[in-house]
Amino acid sequence: MTHPCRSQVAREFDRLASVYARCRTGRSEREGREFADWLGLRSDEVVLDAACGPGTLAGIMARRSARAFALDISPRMLELARGSDRQGQIPLTMGDIEALPYADGTFDLVTCTYAFANFRQPAKVLRELARVTRPEGRIAIIDVVAPANPKRRLRLNQIEARRSHLDTHIASRAQFVKLFESAGLVVLRSACHFCRQSVRQWLERSPARIGQPARIREALLKFVDGTRAAPQSGRRTSGYFVSYTTQWFVLLKHP
């Protein structure tokens, strides 16, 4: 990631930090707990949550593991993470996931959730995650996946491009697996989950402060809010939702 790109991403996610703070939900906490259970997280493991955002998963792992670390490119996101870490258990680091400031083989487990769509060099990121993971350690990822059908996948990414001015690319499961293989990683296991989110939250969390994406976003927000408030068959509407699919992956270094 070049320095201007890194700075742009940091600025955008600084701005989004206030939205994440407002939109924190029980669903995020529940997903984090379920993910930790699914991973079989042990209390003696040293773990890193890379691109940690507001620190939800890092906090859950800190309460369950001997030592948890967290890293993010956004100072404001790290402030949120620090605020939720009431006991000061988590060493928080501002840094670039493409050049992690940790020695080789530091961690038993490295996690990264909902971040790969914004990485310009995802293979480089994976190699860095693998570098700081111990030889018998695990890398665990949660991310939204695009449909396998190329036309539907293209359409999804066109929609994503219109709500954001950062480079965004959502990969299919098969594309993720190829990416893992290119970084010398193999899938130990995976799970598919179907989710939904309100259109308002989906739009608010998009990095679109200025320009056409912002105008499209604001127009859609006005439409959604107006429709929600408008009477329909004598009752108010309950709002609009977007549906999406996520994949949970556990990866190992290739023997």
Model description:
The chain has one domain (3-148, 167-195, 245-253): Rossmann fold. The protein contains 9 helices and 9 strands. The protein has helices at residues 3-23, 26-39, 56-64, 75-84, 122-131, 150-162, 173-182, 199-204, 211-229; strands at 46-50, 67-72, 92-94, 107-113, 133-145, 185-198, 231-232, 235-236, 241-253. The chain has a 7-stranded mixed β-sheet with strand order 3-2-1-4-5-9-6, with helices on both faces. The relative contact order is 0.13. Residues 209-213 and 227-238 have low confidence and may be disordered.
What is the third-level CATH name, the topology?
Rossmann fold
Q: Strand share of the residues?
A: 25-35%
Overall tally of structural domains: 1
Q: What is the approximate shape?
A: globular
CA radius of gyration is: 19 Å
CATH architecture assignment name: 3-Layer(aba) Sandwich
Low-confidence runs of at least 5 consecutive residues: 209-213, 227-238
Structural class determined from secondary elements: alpha/beta
The CATH first-level class comes to: Alpha Beta
Proportion of helical residues: 40-55%
Which keywords apply here?
single chain, about 260 residues, alpha/beta, Rossmann fold, seven-stranded mixed sheet, two-stranded antiparallel ribbon, 9 helices, 9 strands, about 45% helix
What can be said about this structure in brief?
With 255 residues, the protein is α/β, with parallel strands linked by helices. It has 9 helices and 9 strands.
